[in-house]
Amino acid sequence: MSDALGARLRPCGPVRDAEAAGRIHERLVEAADEGGWRGALDGAWGALEPVFASSPYLAGLARRWPERLRQILETAPEARLAEILAATDALDGPADEARAPLRHLKAELHLLTALADLGGVWDLDAVTGALSRFADAAAQAAMRCVAHDQRRRGKLISATDDPRGPVPGLFVLAMGKGGAFELNYSSDIDLSLFFEPEVLEGALAEGVEAQGFVNRLAQGLATLLTERTADGYVFRVDLRLRPDPSSTPPVVAAPMALAYYESVGQNWERAAFIKARVCAGDAAEGADFLKALVPYIWRRSLDYQAVLDIQSIKKQIHVHKTGEGLEAAGANLKLGRGGIREIEFYVQTQQLILGGRDKGLRSSRTLEALEALTERGHVTPEARDELAAAYHELRGLEHRVQMLADEQSHVLPLDPERRADVAALAGQGDLATFDAGVEAVLVGVNRRYGELFEGGEELSSPYGSLVFTGVENDPGTLETLKRMGFSEPATVSDTIRSWHHGRIPATRTARGRELFTRLAPQLLTAVARTGAPDAAFRRFAVFFSGLSAGVQVQALFLNQPKLFDLVVGVMAFAPRLARALGRQPQALDGVLDARFMTALGTDTGVADQVVREAREAGDFEGAMNAVRRLHREQTFRIGMHVITGRTTAEQAGWTNTSLADACMRGLAPAALAEAERMGGAFEGAVAVVALGKAGSREMTAGSDLDLMTVYAAAPEATSAGKGWSADLFYGRFTQRLIAALSAHTAEGGLYEVDMRLRPTGSKGPVSVRLEALEAYYAEEAETWEFMALTRGRLVWASDAAFGARVEARLEAALRRPRPPGVDVARDVRAMRDLMDRERRPKGFWDLKLSAGAQVDAEFVAQYRQLCAAAAGQPLTVSTLEALKDDPLLAETWRTHQQLGQLMACAFEDKGDPDAEPTGFQKRLATTVGSPDFETLKARLIDLRLRARRAFEEALPQGLEGGRDGN
Q1: What does the DSSP 8-state code read for residue 752?
Q2: 3-state SS class at 321
Q3: CA pair distance 84, 26, nearest whole angstrom
Q4: Which helix (H) or strand (E) holds 38?
Q5: Which of 422, 429, 435, 761 has a CA-to-CA distance to 856 between 20 and 30 Å?
Q6: DSSP codes joined into one string, 438-461
Q7: Counts of helices then strands in the chain (DSSP H, E)
Q8: 799-848 tens-digit pLDDT
């Protein structure tokens, strides 16, 4: 037993919360007494107590699986690790059957690794090695299981024991820390998947397309490891370290990847491949692939510019990826100034420059490479010793931060209590002493990092010199700005110089100003290319000045130049999106998603993601914020597609509405759960029905949500907790849903919600019983309410069968014959005339109310649907489908909708295109196929006149009977 872990553990530090430790101790004593291992528990408790007192996550693992804790304590850690890896290696068969075992093994691995680390039994190499070896085993098991499923479906025909691996020709590279056996405690794993087409195709059944097959397999592998279940997850999987991830599939053909790296591969990608190794799949093909990349990664000769470019990796990371200070509280131990990333790039940039001629400098492991650089005289022994010690210290602290709650965090908590927990796990009981030690390490690393590649880089523009130093405007710079098309070059120069001087939050820090020095020429060049430099710069200034901090945003722009050009174009032509970016710059995060440029109208899985993340958020507020984060990214994505002319009005309307549907489907269950939390469970069912443009799937960026909720319950039913009646319970649900959809949180807002189209409007109950809805439409509803109902569409129901009932009753209400004396056509025309008197169009660019524009077309469409309902013909919520026999009205609706989609993305109010730059006017014209702005206006005048005549023919004034829609 002397080799058993329990006998070797030492207390990591002071006991921070004896009461919390006592609670877990009681549970463990009970299990130990029952299982006969009380002696092992008592012997190790002195070391376990400070761990469980500070780490809720580790305490939770022990509480849930005491028998696993027993095995860990009673076995040598190396032997237990071997057993965990062997059990993982033995996993095979269907992916569903491996899901729980993988998660159980990961939990045990986590508990073993943490105790061996905190108890002083394993050093850093042993800890990261154990984590990395398990990651390899888990990836291999996941590949075996998803391959098994494909083989069972008849897609994969290779033998199960094929020596080339589960899927011949397909291999997985471990990248980043996993590739170097340096994984941190709660790390995600960077996996890059490649395949050799000729080999893979021989393993696939006839007719199976290789690219689609490996894409599905990669998704299955990632899901098996990443998906959170009641047993937790295995690893978060990041597949983005592949060639051009925004435009390539998740698995890239090896020949294509080699061509990419050899032709357009960037130096940061070369740095990433320093750590790459085959971790799963066809090892021989993977080895050949990495061998072919050796000349790309390790270049024997580098010209001066190539050296400078490599050095710029260091400069970018120094400025772009760091924190704002060197205080321990809130310090980012990985990306912050003086953090782990600086040590890694200190080593890797020198490896890239020197490793082409010296194979001894090619180690994937950070400290081994640092030692090799020292042995060859490139790094002083003093710098090596300081950086190596700091690396051990920072990695240990990083692990302890992550051990608190198994979060992929690298930030020392701002909260002193939580930071003191980290300190205790690191052996320090005095927080001030701990903070001072951390700060000293960060300062030392940052100082050493700053010594590397000292000197500036040349900045220029194709338009000429751009100098913003000193207190006066540089004459050559004013000339350049004039050539760029600015009408007031001196004002632009003054603004840029004020930003250089730190007069806005984004450039208030030294790092922000250094970063902006590199961004400024790119900004001005991009602005000039829009053709509307004054407007683009003015709106960018509003956005940039409004940022609370600018390091991350500027870093994103510098590293994503195409994105930057796109954003500057938005600044020129879309003040609405510009202001949205200023308020919520996180919207730019979605651009990094490979789905960002997928055509609108394509199912990208975002809707399912919204629902899933809302469900997994844990509580009502968490669901609201999760949905808002995805909504923010997607509305920006839709806006960019519309503004840049990548989509049609129908696609934009469909995607806007699909996003709204997803938000409702994600938040309605959360609202129902919140109502149950407040009032108790309720036996009944409820549905959400969309009306207006949400119902017809024709929403724009500024559309409200016209909704009603319908419920069914026994008349005497009450909630289990507070005894709420059905109308009260579902009223509270509806109120919670409205709040979930319309309230502004720290993550922004979603939609304005309008419930006035429900039966009895604002005077009646906020949620309507199904029987009451039927009665209202049978006895009280007016023609305009039936018009609104033609666009009614079920979005969500707590019960599928009830949802089907609601749909059937809504259709029945539309098809029910109207009472004698009701003239539907006359009513529709009278309502349009009333609207024309009371809501006059607000100028030429009122796309809705102008005669011959959208409202005329929509009234006819809704009238046609009422006629179709009465005649027993098929119904549709789509305006264009309803106007299939009214081509002129369909044309005017489509044209105005296309313009409306663009203007809704561009302006928060109606906007006046006549006052906008010529670039925007041209964009507006081209979106509907007109050669220029003046032609567009002439076309609209003509189209509206013809469409109004078609409206008059469909619904002439003075109608008298015979056309009542019955």
Answers
A1: -
A2: coil
A3: 27
A4: helix 38-54
A5: 761
A6: HHHHHHHHHHHHHTTT-S-----B
A7: 41, 10
A8: 999 999 999 999 999 999 988 888 999 999 999 999 999 999 999 999 99
Residue 586 per-residue DSSP state: G
Contact 408, 401 (CB under 8 A): no
Q: What is the largest CA-CA distance in the chain?
A: 102
Give the Å distances, CA to CA, from 854 to 124, 401, 797.
Answer: 67, 57, 31
* Angstrom distance (rounded) from CA 451 to CA 453: 7
Under 8 Å between Cβ of 628 and 750: yes
- Answer yes or no: are the C-beta atoms of 537 and 486 closer than 8 Å: yes
DSSP conformation class of 472? S
Q: What does the DSSP assignment read for 900-943?
A: HHHHHHH-SS---GGGS-HHHHHHHHHTTT-SSHHHHHHHHHHH
Q: Contact 577/633 with Cβ under 8 angstroms?
A: no
Nearest to 466 by CA among 451, 437, 446, 486: 486
Whether 634 contacts 594, CB under 8 Å:
no
Q: Please give the radius of gyration of the chain, using alpha carbons only, rounded to the nearest integer.
A: 32
> What's the distance, CA 168 to chain centroid?
33
Alpha carbons 752 and 318: distance in angstroms, whole number = 43
Of 705, 638, 704, the C-alpha closest to 901 is 638
The answer to whether 180 and 272 are in contact (CB under 8 A) is no
CB neighbours of residue 334 within 10 Å = 21
What amino acid occupies position 756? R
Q: Give which of 385, 344, 349, 379 is closest to 365, Cα–Cα.
A: 344
Give the pLDDT confidence of 20-72 residue by residue, as tens digits. Answer: 999 999 999 999 999 999 999 999 999 999 999 999 999 999 999 999 999 99
Residue 320 is predicted with a pLDDT of 31
Burial of 333 (0-12, 13-18, 19+ CB in 10 A): buried
Identity (one letter) of the amino acid at 727?
A: D
Half-sphere exposure of 374 (CA within 13 A, CB side): 15
Query: Rounded to an integer, what distance in angstroms lies between the CA atom of residue 831 and that of residue 838?
Result: 10
Q: Is 160 exposed, middle or buried (0-12, 13-18, 19+ CB in 10 A)?
A: exposed
Sorted by sequence, the CB contacts under 8 Å of residue 795 that are 6+ apart come out as 661, 664, 665, 668, 688, 689, 690, 694
Give the bridge partners for 251, in sequence order: 193
256: exposed, middle or buried (Cβ count in 10 Å: 0-12, 13-18, 19+): middle
How many whole angstroms separate alpha carbon 758 and alpha carbon 64?
Answer: 49
Rounded Cα gap, residues 334 and 332, in angstroms? 5
Residue 599: how many other CB atoms lie within 10 Å: 12
For strand 170-175 and strand 189-195, is the pairing parallel, antiparallel, or unpaired? antiparallel
DSSP state for residue 590 in the 8-state scheme: G
Q: 61: which residues sit within 8 A by CB, 6+ positions away?
A: 68, 69, 107, 110, 111
Which helix (H) or strand (E) is 786 found in, with range? helix 783-789
Q: Which residue spans within 656-781 are E strands per DSSP?
A: 685-691, 705-712, 753-754, 767-769
User: Any long-range contacts for 826-830 (C-beta under 8 Å, 24+ apart)?
Assistant: 826/959, 826/960, 826/963, 826/964, 827/782, 827/783, 827/784, 828/783, 828/787, 828/859, 828/862, 828/863, 828/866, 828/955, 829/955, 829/956, 829/957, 829/959
User: In whole angstroms, what is the distance from residue 824 CA to residue 832 CA?
Assistant: 12
**Neighbour-count burial of 328, counting CB atoms closer than 10 A to its CB (0-12 exposed, 13-18 middle, 19+ buried):** buried
Kindly state the DSSP code that residue 797 receives in the 8-state scheme: E
DSSP labels, 281-297: E-HHHHHHHHHHHHHHH
Distance of CA 394 to the CA centre of its chain: 28
Residue 201 confidence (pLDDT) above 80: yes
The pair phi, psi for residue 796, each rounded to 5°, is -155, 145
- pTM as predicted: 0.54
Q: Which of 289-293, 569-573, 595-599, 627-631 has the highest mean pLDDT?
A: 289-293
Least confident window among 697-711, 905-919, 921-935: 905-919
> What pLDDT score was predicted for residue 310?
55
